User: Fold these one by one.
Assistant:
Number 1:
Amino acid sequence: MSHKTVEVALGERSYPILIGHGVLGEASHHLFAHLASNRVIILIDEALIDTHLHTLLKSLAASQLKYDIVPVPSGETSKSLAAYAALCEAILRLNPDRHTTLLTFGGGVVGDLGGFIAATLLRGIPFIQLPTTLLSQVDSSVGGKTGLNTSVGKNLVGAFYQPKAVLIDTMTLQTLPDRELRAGYGEIVKYGVLGDAEFFEWLDTHQAEILARKPETLAEVIAYCCSAKAEIVAEDERESGKRALLNLGHTFAHALEAEAGYDGTLLHGEAVSIGMVMAAHLSEQLDLCEMGLAERIRAHLQRAGCPVSPADIKADWQVVALLGHFHADKKNQNGKWVFILLEALGRAVIRKDVAQSAVRDTLLAFDGIRD
Ligand SMILES: NC(=O)c1ccc[n+]([C@@H]2O[C@H](COP(=O)([O-])OP(=O)(O)OC[C@H]3O[C@@H](n4cnc5c(N)ncnc54)[C@H](O)[C@@H]3O)[C@@H](O)[C@H]2O)c1
Ligand SMILES: [Zn+2]
């Protein structure tokens, strides 16, 4: 079967991302060169056990690879210190060695959690990501950020740890719930808005094909997003500069997610969708970009069925509560608020001097937020 390859160029930590329809059924063929021994441990989202696991196992068994399966309950709560501890113990009982490869099979939750387990177990074992949500295929499986949530905040324990390879099968997306697909679409739009106006225009005409899960269009758009992110990560692996641009919409998104309470009422990609429109609105308000940009982005996302204001998820929030979450953002520096803003479609900049009053005005301009 044909597939596309995107190389993440990080010196000796470089690795390939393979993308195609049906590549999971040829997993051992594609992964063989990236395995350190004939033994793998599969960390799998429970939701995939009845749907996609057999495809992977058939391929592994055909090449006589030895495997164990460790299931992870679906959902963000599995990205916890408690789940991490229990899974480390479960994996250690299987007696792995430093050449055993951990395969993380699931969305961003299993990827972030499994990546952190791989980074720390036996002081580091190799791992390979098999991402199965649109969000994880276009974003979280690229760049080596791994981590866990704590009671103080999300993603506050973690490590930069690169996989040996990533294998993306667009076929797995056929079973993804619509809402999760749209959440992933929010992150796709982000790449156009922050760095490539032409790609944004391409999305204008290909949006329907992506949402209809047309395999060739999915493979094309996933490959584009992976290479866009890979290029930025190759320049700035540990986010000391340019990589921060990938956080477009995320300062707002994190505040919205915190207010929503991580209970599934607002998915991360949905928060990013609303957050991008807010970032564009704030950019207009600060005279950084021309008027109309926020509306253009809003209209595109709305047409895709992505939420574009808190009212779209039936929220009714007080602005002070939201502002409280900005104070806690780990990207703040010296009391100044850091935002990724827009000078134009496709041109994002980092601003470290944004006044609280401007953020407040932007928030109040959105339905579902009141004084
Ligand atoms: N490391 C990074 O750079 C990075 C970037 C963005 C997001 N993230 C993290 O990613 C996580 C979100 O990832 P996500 O959106 O993939 O969430 P997720 O892993 O929770 O998956 C979403 C839902 O889809 C289900 N699912 C997964 N694959 C499926 C399939 N093929 N068919 C049917 N159902 C399927 C899961 O069981 C879950 O219920 C967050 O924890 C976020 O912090 C990390
Ligand atoms: Zn994100």
Number 2:
Amino acid sequence: MLMTSPRPTVADTSSAPCAADTPLLVVRDLTTQFPTRHGWLTAVNHVSYELRAGRVLGVLGESGSGKSAMLRTILGLQPKSTRISGEILLDGRDLISMSSSEREDMRGASVSMVFQDPMTALDPVFTVEQQLVETIRRHSTLPRSEAADRALELLQTVQIPSPERRLKAYPFELSGGMRQRVVIAMALVSNPRLLLADEPTTALDVTVQARVLDLFRDLKHRMGMGIIFVTHDLAVVAEIADDIAVMYAGRIVEFGRLDDIVRSPQHPYTRGLLEANIRPGQHDRPEAIPGSPPNLANLPPGCSFAPRCHAAEAACWDAVPTFVPVSPGHGVRCLNAVRPVEAVAR
Ligand SMILES: Nc1ncnc2c1ncn2[C@@H]1O[C@H](COP(=O)(O)OP(=O)(O)OP(=O)(O)O)[C@@H](O)[C@H]1O
Ligand SMILES: [Mg+2]
């Protein structure tokens, strides 16, 4: 179900439990570059994948790997100077080639985002009700009183305790978990088909995190939303994702169903991430991945992970590895990956 440049190969996902036959979102060869003093910085590098309604794609990667840049590109929120190429098809319509007003309509109606920092998404001088009602009225023709009813309904959907009271509260009066739920409620105003969630649980303590993850699960099952859930935390993604994309230096280096990635990681970077996170039931100390990611404005010619890879060979420094399928729905960008034939024989 994924891959990348220059020609995406679509792996077999026919056995996946899909809510619909056609993908909700198709991202093809997406590249996002920002101008910097040192030249173009490639934050998203030939990324391709598909997402079906009712499924969650977990995007995993270290800080600076391009996770937020990818979501903001899908949403159409990058600065004008950004160079973007490739395709982003939402229900078959290409978002990149749309006019800005069409894009704006699409953003309101079909796709919305839970931003990384809940405080920046909320205005401290307005109550929760004022902010929700304003957002609802921007997206509909509802009169104020009905918009207020809808605001209450949304707080109930995100399971905020005593929702009537919370409507009258200012953001600073709410706990971190409640603020995050309000931000999620805001993103649900237009009943989007695609929800982009950027580290929605990072700032939360573990019990609140678990409840917010339940909420996302509910949105997926009950409302059939397609969700892209970005995190640097494997334990979180393991709770919620159907598929996982592992990003490194702007590229997807491994993609597969959750079980395949956790049980049979192929890329040394994915293995490093698995070791850096304590797996359920495992009590060893996590091992960090040595070294740091490359400068995205000056990428090495070969595999971006080669300088940190214990298994790197001479060929790894020469050219970026192509994305190869290793089993249905599972692929990797690594010269040392298990090839399809070996994968079948295992
Ligand atoms: N508007 C911009 N102009 C220039 N560079 C940018 C811009 N937005 C992002 N970048 C750069 O793109 C790269 C990827 O950033 P991004 O925010 O997508 O990382 P991330 O994976 O979301 O990291 P984190 O886990 O810390 O949130 C970084 O090097 C960042 O500095
Ligand atoms: Mg980010």
